[in-house]
């Protein structure tokens, strides 16, 4: 990779104005707007994507870093953001109004179908305290991870009603048999509980997340799984308005019931990692277009990615393609955090990244054994 030249009056002026903006997300919006609209002379012009990220990160390389060799040295180190945003205000309490043999009804209008629910094994996991580096044992869910089934979908119209229902029945049977998700939201907005909330669902596999206090690895145990019957590996996401509304009600209930912060509501693409090549994006469902705002959450794509900042994971071209061709702002923020931490430790970014990766391997091994001495026995994701 080659570091981009930053020269010319246009670029220097743009960089000067960008440096005056302290909020990283606002800085990204400013750069995109200016680079799209400014009629600068051709001799000053750089590719939009390259210029945006060279200036936004104040020297971070634009090209995806895949972990081979050392990344280019940065020109400057930008002010870093915290590893994960602070939790938002607590959601309103949602209570169970009525419980029947096959369903539950809640005060916010949520209805959960429970005819298909199964038990697996009780949730029990270890989380790493970020301040002290010590482990804590937990049984309550720490967060919510959003997925898509990526299953076959019939056109969503009345002419295909029977095909839609048959496809939905098939995916529920498949998920239930493999104990993949706690909840599936079908295309009509119906919420099915398939694994009871107190038990493990096998949905996340190798994964990394963190909040301000704790780091979580292999999120099968620590996070609840909510999956949309939908596909995101297409240009236009296939989720429906009814699904988004049902997901909002379900998210409200789960957050209130378990005290889950907005910072711990993420998508599979944000947490999925491949330890073999130390890259993000082993799974890429909800790599783009997740309706965070519609669910009453902050935009998770703006949040720094813990796998990068804490453990040095990289990413490649396939991952960028799944993201729509451009990194999330949170991915850039995480790279900034890594560079800042390297400078504070007196290390180059490349050396620091290798140290973080070794830390991940040791931490992941320690996280696999709980206090009962039971190994993780299944990884379905």
Characterization of the model:
This protein has an 8-stranded mixed beta sheet. It has 10 helices and 14 strands. The radius of gyration is 22 Å and the shape is globular. Strand 13 (273-274) and strand 14 form a beta hairpin. It is an alpha/beta fold.
Topology:
Blueprint: H1 9-19, H2 24-37, H3 48-56, E1 96-99, E2 103-106, E3 111-113, E4 125-129, E5 135-138, E6 143-148, H4 161-178, E7 183-185, E8 191-193, E9 208-210, E10 214-217, E11 223-228, H5 241-258, E12 265-267, H6 268-271, E13 273-274, E14 279-280, H7 306-311, H8 317-322, H9 329-344, H10 349-367
Helix pairs in contact: 2-3, 9-10
Q: What helical percentage do the residues reach?
A: 25-40%
Helix-strand pattern: HHHEEEEEEHEEEEEHEHEEHHHH
Give the mean pLDDT. 80
Uncertain spans: 1-12, 35-65, 67-89, 370-381
Précis, in short:
The chain is α/β, with parallel strands linked by helices and 381 residues long. It has helices at residues 9-19, 24-37, 48-56, 161-178, 241-258, 268-271, 306-311, 317-322, 329-344, 349-367, and strands spanning 96-99, 103-106, 111-113, 125-129, 135-138, 143-148, 183-185, 191-193, 208-210, 214-217, 223-228, 265-267, 273-274, 279-280.
Search tags:
single chain, 381 residues, alpha/beta, 8-stranded mixed sheet, 4-stranded antiparallel sheet, 10 helices, globular
């Amino acid at each position: 990779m080659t570091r981009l030249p930053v020269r010319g009056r246009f670029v220097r002026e743009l960089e000067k104005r960008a440096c005056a903006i302290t909020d990283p997300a606002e800085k990204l919006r400013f750069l995109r707007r200016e680079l799209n609209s400014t009629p600068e002379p051709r001799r000053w012009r750089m590719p939009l994507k390259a210029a945006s990220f060279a200036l936004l990160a104040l020297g971070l390389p634009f090209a995806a870093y895949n972990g081979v060799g050392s990344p280019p040295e940065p020109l400057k180190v930008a002010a870093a953001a915290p590893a994960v945003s602070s939790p938002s205000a607590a959601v309103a309490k949602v209570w169970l109004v009525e419980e029947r043999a096959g369903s539950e009804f809640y005060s916010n209008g949520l209805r959960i179908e429970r005819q298909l629910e199964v038990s697996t094994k009780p949730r029990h996991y270890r989380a790493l305290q970020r301040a002290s580096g010590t482990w804590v044992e937990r049984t309550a869910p720490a967060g919510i991870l959003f997925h898509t089934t990526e299953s076959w979908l019939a056109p969503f119209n009345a002419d295909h009603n029977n095909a839609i229902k048959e496809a939905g029945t098939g995916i529920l049977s498949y998920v239930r048999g493999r104990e993949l998700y706690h909840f599936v939201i079908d295309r009509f907005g119906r919420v099915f509980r398939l694994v009871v909330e107190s038990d493990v669902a096998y949905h996340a596999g190798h994964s990394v997340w963190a909040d301000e206090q704790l780091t979580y690895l292999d999120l099968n145990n620590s996070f609840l799984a909510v999956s949309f019957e939908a596909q995101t590996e297409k240009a236009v996401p296939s989720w429906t308005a009814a699904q988004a509304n049902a997901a909002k009600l379900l998210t409200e209930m789960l957050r209130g019931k378990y005290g889950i912060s907005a910072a711990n509501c993420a998508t599979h693409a944000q947490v999925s990692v491949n330890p073999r090549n130390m890259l993000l994006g082993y799974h890429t469902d909800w790599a783009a277009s997740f309706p965070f705002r519609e669910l009453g959450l902050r935009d998770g794509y703006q949040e720094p990615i813990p796998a990068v900042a804490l453990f040095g994971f990289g990413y490649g071209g396939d991952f960028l393609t799944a993201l729509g061709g451009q990194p999330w702002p949170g991915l850039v923020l995480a790279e900034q955090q890594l560079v800042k931490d390297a400078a504070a430790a007196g290390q180059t970014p490349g050396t620091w990244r290798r140290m973080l990766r070794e830390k991940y391997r040791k931490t992941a091994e320690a996280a696999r054994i709980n206090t009962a001495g039971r190994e993780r026995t299944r990884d379905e994701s």
